[in-house]
Design goal:
Helix 1 packs across helix 5, helix 2 (about 35-45) packs parallel to helix 3 (about 60-70) and helix 14 (about 330-340) packs across helix 16 (about 385-400). The longest helix is centred in the first third of the chain and has 29 residues, at about 105-135. Helices cover about 50% and strands about 10% of the residues. It is an alpha/beta fold. The chain is elongated, with a radius of gyration of 28 Å. It has 3 domains: about 5-125, Response regulator (Rossmann fold), CATH 3.40.50.2300; about 140-300, P-loop containing nucleotide triphosphate hydrolases (Rossmann fold, 3-Layer(aba) Sandwich), CATH 3.40.50; about 300-425, Helicase, Ruva Protein, domain 3, CATH 1.10.8. It contains 18 helices and 12 strands. The strands form 3 sheets. Strands 2-1-3-4-5 form a 5-stranded parallel β-sheet, sandwiched between helices.
Length: about 425
């Protein structure tokens, strides 16, 4: 259901338009002239404005300008009498979606144009949200060698149209990888549409993915385009693909095989699809359609060089949400963060930092502010003595970089001189 504003000085035209659209369960507000339309637009938001161009007090062109300036999210359809098409074209240059000539041929034409305008509004909203969310994404990696093969694989496959399957534990950055793949591809200007198969109930998932026709079920007053159709010309990301029910797996397989839409398919899962196939809970033919180019994302515990830079990036974002600058992390807390196993990956790291930010009240984050959800790499409790924790972090890091002390200092986020002092203090050769 959409909120639609109709502006026309002819009461008969307004009533005809309102009746035709209210049948489709839209909420319609009427304005008798341009001034009343502007007042409505000032007080309320609308999905769609339908306005005549010739009206008393304020003409329709000024209404269109006001809508573009004050309510850019509102789609616009203009009505024009025979012989004033030039004015309608001028309105379209200002951003109007379409124009209809009076007298209208019938309600069917009106409903079709309205449906198309609302669908474009939904698509633009999806693209804007994807762009906004994408701009806030944590980078896929901060230079850890374990991520180099992943980034190289994404760059190579981005140049193709191959379907990509991203596998890895929850919180390893599969959606971040999908967005990076989209940005690197020739489809970067198109929509990036994501659906989490585990986040929606079965009753809504099919409609969300594939859409529905009017009357398909109770409450379906009009045709709805699915997310797959809205991704036409772009990338469609199916997260938690293993949660898709068998009947929807079959329908998705048909959609992919029939190539109904110009869509780049990217799927992701944290489950063992081979095991699910053996259990007959996931279709093998769908797996082979999705796993044309599989990429595995390593867990955060295998990417130690990413931990502290990711923590700082997440902390900066959390600081903005709390309305202040991000606090610093002292050396003891940095050592503890670097030593932790992060079995929950980036999500656990974000939760830990948010708690620390609250406990520190915006001041410097210290070890006492950290509350870990899982054991450290050595399985020792997070409350172990700080000296033991710090020594363990240094030893683990040195082993990972094969004794390169400069790299170890960089990974630990401390100066080289400080590292030498700690090596001497703890008797580490």
């Amino acid at each position: 259901m959409a909120r639609i504003l109709i502006a026309d000085d002819e009461e008969g035209v307004r009533s005809f338009l309102a009746d035709a659209l209210e049948i489709d369960a839209h909420k319609v507000v009427q304005a008798a002239d341009g001034q009343e339309a502007i007042e409505q637009l000032t007080r309320h938001s609308f999905h769609l404005l339908i306005t005549d161009l010739r009206m008393p007090r304020v003409d329709g062109m000024e209404v269109v300008r006001h809508a573009r300036r004050e309510r850019p999210e509102t789609e616009v359809i203009v009505l024009t009498a025979f012989g004033t098409v030039d004015s309608a074209i001028e309105a379209m240059k200002l951003g109007a979606f379409e124009y209809l000539q009076k007298p209208l041929s019938g309600p069917a034409e009106l409903r079709l144009v309205v449906q198309r305008a609302l669908e474009r509004r939904e698509l633009l909203a999806l693209k804007e949200r994807a762009t906004r969310e994408g701009a806030e994404d944590v980078p896929l990696s901060y230079g850890d060698p374990a991520m180099a093969p992943v980034e190289e694989a994404l760059r190579k496959v981005a140049r193709t149209t191959a379907t990509v399957l991203l596998v890895g534990e929850s919180g390893t950055g599969k959606e971040v990888a999908a967005r990076l793949l989209h940005r690197l591809s020739e489809r970067a200007a198109g929509p990036f549409v994501a659906v989490n198969c585990a986040a929606l109930p079965d009753s809504l998932l099919e409609s969300e993915l594939f859409g529905h026709e009017a009357g398909a079920f109770t409450g379906a007053a009009q045709r709805r385009r699915g997310r797959v159709e809205l991704a036409d010309g772009g990338t469609f990301f199916l997260d938690e693909i293993a949660e898709l029910k068998p009947e929807l797996q079959a329908k998705l397989l048909r959609v992919i095989q029939e190539r109904r839409f110009d869509v780049r398919w990217v799927a992701a899962t944290n489950r063992d699809l081979h095991a699910l196939i053996e259990q007959e809970r996931f279709r093998e033919d769908l797996y082979h359609r999705l796993a044309v180019f599989p990429i595995e994302l390593p867990p955060l515990r295998d990417r130690p060089q990413d931990i502290l830079p990711m923590a700082e990036c997440l902390l900066a974002r959390l600081g903005r949400q709390f309305g202040g600058a991000p606090p610093a992390i002292d050396e003891e807390a940095r050592a503890a963060l670097a030593a932790h196993s992060w079995r929950g990956n980036a999500r656990e790291l974000a939760n830990t930092l948010e708690r620390a930010l609250i406990l520190s009240e915006g001041e410097e984050i210290r070890l006492e502010h950290l509350r870990f959800e899982a054991p450290t790499r050595s399985s020792a409790p997070a409350t172990q003595r700080l000296s033991d924790l710090e020594r363990e972090a240094i030893v683990n890091t040195l082993e990972f970089v094969r004794g390169n002390r400069r790299l170890a200092a960089e990974r630990l986020g401390i100066g080289l001189r400080t590292l030498y002092e700690k090596l001497k203090r703890y008797g580490i050769e």
